[in-house]
Amino acid sequence: MEENDLDETDWALLAQLQQDASLSNQALAERVHVSPPTALRRVRRLHALGLIERQVAVLAEDAVAARLGHGLSAIAEVSLDRQGEEHLAAFEQRAVQDAAVQQCWRVSPGPDFVLVLRVRDMPAYQELAQRLFTQDANVRNVRTFFAVRRAKFGTQVPLAPKGMPPRA
To answer: Which residue in 120, 70, 113, 77 sits closest to 99, CA to CA?
Structure first.
């Protein structure tokens, strides 16, 4: 899949869908100035090309937490003793299967992994730490940072084909 396989309409559709994937096909077509059948055909093509991974609702974590009476966000840096591919893959597999792990990144340099975590409260974090970190003999070091305020959260991928300015 080459960048030049996409035209301005495709990029405009991707930009609109990143802002609001709940738009009806009619509304999406109006926003990018194409017919509804064209919008539908192109969005299906973008899915088939693997450019659209999935469409989800992004919940307001703090609003949900307020209604549930809990919520703790944390970022953990995890370093392993052995960094062979099999060891990295084993930890990664365990991490991504845990519901409290919202994001799992292999990083370099520094720690081997950065995890974005969302748990009910501090006891739930301690259970997670026991499950993922303490019980794994290959985990050498964990540094966890607990969020006190989220200033920005985004899900949009910047869309700027070569030679073009980024879209707002």
So the answer is: 120
Backbone Cα Rg of the chain:
20
Q: Using the Cα atoms of residue 98, residue 102, residue 107 and residue 113 in order, give the sign of their dihedral.
A: negative
Which residue type does 107 have? Answer: V
pLDDT tens digits for the chain (168 residues)? 454 689 999 999 999 999 999 999 999 999 999 999 999 999 999 999 999 999 988 888 888 888 887 789 999 999 999 999 999 999 999 999 999 999 999 999 999 999 999 999 999 999 999 999 999 999 999 999 999 988 888 888 988 766 555 555
How open is the CA angle 111-113-119, to the nearest 5 degrees? 120
State if pTM tops 0.90.
no
> Which listed CATH number (2.60.120.200, 3.30.420.40, 3.30.70.920, 3.40.50.2000) goes with 61-146?
3.30.70.920
Measured distance CA(44)–CA(39) in Å, rounded: 9
Distance in angstroms (rounded) separating the CA atoms of residues 82 and 55: 37
- Residue 112's region, left for phi above 0, alpha for psi from -120 to 50, else beta, is alpha
Domain segments of the chain: what residues? 3-48, 61-146
